[in-house]
Amino acid sequence: MLGRYQPIVVANRAPLALEPADVYRNTPERLVKGAGGLVTALSSLASSTSALWVAVARDEADRALAARGDPAELVTEDGTTYRVAFVEPTPEAYDLYYNTVSNPLLWFIQHYLWDLAREPIVDTATLYAWREGYVRVNQMVADRVVAEALASAKPPLVFVQDYQLYCVPGMVRAALGDVRIQHFVHIPWPTPQYWTILPKSIRDAILHGLLGADVLGFQTRRDVRNFLLTCEENLGLAVDFRERTVFYEGRAVWVRNYPISIDVDGLLAQADSEEVIAEQARLLSWRPEKLILRVDRTDLSKNIVRGFLAYERMLDYHQELHGDVQFWAYLQPSRQDIDDYRAYLGSVLSVAARINRKFSRGGWTPIRVEVDDVMARALAGYRQFDVLLVNPIYDGMNLVAKEGVVCNRRDGVLVLSENAGSYEELGDFALTVNPFDIDETAEALYLGLTMDAPQKQARAERIRETVRAADINRWISLQVQDLRDLID
Ligand code: F6P
Hints:
Blueprint: E1 6-10, E2 16-19, E3 30-33, H1 37-48, E4 52-56, H2 60-66, E5 72-75, E6 81-87, H3 91-110, H4 124-151, E7 156-161, H5 168-176, E8 180-184, H6 192-195, H7 200-210, E9 215-218, H8 221-235, E10 238-240, E11 245-248, E12 251-257, H9 264-271, H10 274-286, E13 290-297, H11 304-317, E14 325-332, H12 339-359, E15 367-371, H13 375-384, E16 387-390, H14 399-407, E17 413-417, H15 423-426, E18 431-433, H16 438-450, H17 453-469, H18 472-487
The chain binds 6-O-phosphono-beta-D-fructofuranose.
């Protein structure tokens, strides 16, 4: 079906990033896959349909890529070609768009991260950042999509991604009128009341922008319900909850959930690569008998500190495990231009250090924290864990839960937050926890470490089957199917 159309993927990040040469480490310049779940999921769609990808140039490295062509034909190390058109806002506009509005404001609202008694403080600076940063960058992106759509010989199919670009569907619709637009929100959609943290002008503009699309995609059924309620309560729109439709300016906007997933075969092939096997050999040289793993960006929503506190409780209750277990936190630095994120990484490191001081003895260190971003090392960890801790406060989906169990070779147990999007699919086969309850999480970690082999095997097998049955191809085909129904 896509063959008749020109797909245009629109996202803040490009599908690949330039890693400059490093004279100290003696490594050459590399074009590597961009970070994060969104890029992983959309890359398959973009490369298999020769979609055009419109992205925002985030830094000097992206600007260097943008200088290679317009759109730039970029080929990754594994030979995949992407066509990327960059928009290039000024660094000031980008900073207001990304570091003031998208993260933290929207990200914090959508993951319920604000301590509302103290934060956020909304003032004219917020409105300025919205106007001069967020709306301005969204308009640049929309203008670029419109230009590409008008230049294309085939009718465009526009796939806009995530919370950085909420105004784009409305802007593209205003310019092109009859065009098919889908917007997918990768992160949770909170309740209508929580949105009222934002000034009315901003929260209404977000809904008006999104409703420019024909189909709105979310991760879970809960997100869909919350979105429909938000349209009804905050904007007074007519909503059909059974048909999951919002009636807006004479159009019916479909609201659907499409749980995002992974490329199972591609990931398994990568997990068997020489690089990963070499990382695994390194891991085997230090791993204790029992290994608890977490792999996360250093994001406040990931709940890394409570994960350590839960582990501390477990070590308090189960002295027999001392010396035999280690908690490896493999953490990717994230959004370090934002104060809250820097402070959070500081708390993560200091809590881990305190727990290590409390329990370390005879060469045993209970927690190993590594702040780095080497995919092969994460994959080696996936192969080797006994327990994988995924305990976010709230999370759109959390692909670590899916990737980890699919790659694991020890029938490791998944300890999963009931507030992760992946809970809707995997909750029955994981040990599920309330992410705020560190005693319950401690108990789940212990149960996971001591579970008998047949039960572990049965649970891991069910998770692998579930992920295989609903992999990334299904995520894409469900969306394409809905677009087809819409067009026909
Ligand atoms: O789902 C949210 C998301 O866009 C993910 O793709 C990714 O994990 C993360 O946010 C990336 O954030 P950033 O681009 O700010 O590093």
